Amino acid sequence: MDIIDLRSDTVTQPTPAMREAMAKAIVGDDVYGEDPTVNRLQEIASELTGKEAALYVVSGTMGNVAATLAHTQRGDEMICGLKSHIYRNEQGAMAALAGVQARPLEEEYDGTLDIQKIESAIQISDDHHPITRVVAIENSHNICGGVPISPAYIESLGKLTLQYGLRLHLDGARLFNAAAALGVSAKDLVGPADSVSICLSKGLCAPVGSVLCGDAEFIHRARRARKVLGGGMRQAGVLAAAGIIALTDMPARLVVDHQNATLLAKSLAALPGISLERNSASTNMVYFQLDEDVAYSGHEVSSSLKQEGVLLDLVSTRGFRAVTHYEINSDMIEHTVQVLNQVIAS
Asked: What is the pLDDT of residue 282?
């Protein structure tokens, strides 16, 4: 049975071009800074983001944690979204590893944090309070529907952080999805951010890794943080070779994933018993719920779909996320909708 895996874009396999590049990669010891393929990947990432330097790390989580360690001291505070990955999905790493307190704010419907609420939350002088050092934003914002956040908002947020002497960190795990959806460059979306982490292993199809970008001084500190986190890889060019193709070849095709997400959303909206969440198909994600009149639970529907070779991400008792990616085509979308309709109507 062919599997249609819509759980996440992290399930993508490396492309044939990536596999060939990995096999032929020229490598060295990256801890010494001597792996030419890693160095080239970092150069490309810094060029695409308009930042001075870049650092290859194992994962998006490592990139966010390394950025936190590089920007803060123990006892500092970070303002971030209540639904953001850096707050919800990293095991409290900012506290556990960096000794940093989170100040989570509820996101607006479009994935942004209200600028005035951020300003009200900033703490800089009272001896009783932790000092706010960083504001973190996620783009595209996964749990808010994969919604892209505009350059105009990032510019406004950058002005605020500059005014208060704060650092702005951008969790750009799916930055290129946001760029494709908005018709802008990655550099346009990064703007005034002091640091940005970009995942290579989601819609860009590389098997491993993220790239953290910022100025040279920040990257020096982040490199030290990467070491203490266990991320000092050696002949990492074997992996970085796939990352180079991820950054140079793969962003242009993300619009296909978005088109497939739109097709899925429209088809699901036509099914009785299904309600779409707000912002669905803003990029490559479709969130939807089973209506109350559907006789089955989310677990039951998920199990029945799995038996038919369709995998979805069950995110609540009756809620699902479907993520389109390189391994998914329009025929698979149509088949998924047909199977889902059969399951909930039976």
From this structure: 97
Please, is 310 exposed, middle or buried when counting C-beta atoms within 10 Å of its C-beta (0-12, 13-18, 19+)? buried
Residue 231 sits at the vertex; the CA angle it makes with 187 and 78, to the nearest 5 degrees, is 60
307: left (phi over 0), alpha (psi -120 to 50) or beta: alpha
Size of the chain in residues: 346
123: three-class secondary structure by DSSP: coil
Structure tokens at 259: 């088109």
Q: Which residue has the tokens 């801890």?
A: 31
Total domains in the fold of the chain: 2
**What confidence tens digit (pLDDT) does each residue in 217-273 have?**
999 999 999 999 999 999 999 999 999 999 999 999 999 999 999 999 999 999 999
**Are both 206 and 154 inside the same structural domain?**
yes
Indicate if 146 and 294 belong to the same structural domain.
Answer: no
**Sign of the dihedral through C-alpha 37, 41, 42, 44:** positive
Count of CB atoms situated within 10 Å of the CB of 27: 18
> In 3D, which of 133, 150, 247 has the Cα closest to residue 194?
133
321 Cβ partners below 8 Å, 6+ apart?
7, 285, 286, 287, 312, 313, 315
Domain that holds residue 286: 4-9+253-345
How far is the C-alpha of 93 from the C-alpha of 89, rounded, in Å?
A: 9
Domain of 308, CATH number, reads 3.90.1150.10
Angle at 245 between CA 230 and CA 7, to 5 degrees: 70
Contact present, 110 and 165 (Cβ < 8 Å): no
